[in-house]
Amino acid sequence: MDDLDQLDDLVVAARALMVPGERHFLGITGAPGSGKSTLAEDLVRAIGPEAVLVGMDGFHLANAELHRLDRHPRKGAVDTFDAAGYVNLLRRLHAREDAVVYAPRFDRDLEESIGSAVPVPAQVQLVVTEGNYLLLEDSEWSQVRDLLDECWYVDPGEETRLARLIARHIRFGRSPEEAHARSHGSDGRNAAVIAASRSRATRVVRPAPHPG
To answer: What pTM was estimated for this model as a whole?
Structure first.
């Protein structure tokens, strides 16, 4: 997060969900480049071992499957994830029947998911989960919101979001032209879908613009 005072307030709000002997769920959502991953990571780091971050991005379909389905150019769109698999993981984490549940993690360098990469021990009190489509009301995604105690929508403002997104695409190997086209193209269409679900959030987080 860009504002430490704001982060402190959000850590307090996240801790308020925690009850010894129970497990609760906090969703963090927003459009690509909004800063939701950074916020989720900062919250879990501040809370410590009683919290674990489980990303929706771990349920990206593999590149080979996206190519088979002719969806790879739209990677990141709503139909390029295993939504049912994500819902089933959340349900399993709710059940707390296993000593440890292993969740997948998406590796941006590989552009692939790594299975069983995130251990979630039974004693974890707060599962923080972040991703684009946590508030959607379509198909399997519609089940996600009921599995979350709260879901926060991160909105830094469109200018800041796009600047961050373009910079991220460049950092991961795209040319400035490709980064601009992707951010305003498929990512822009995904952002519109996500923004339409904003009203279902319990809180809207507006990070301070990052200097430069």
So the answer is: 0.91
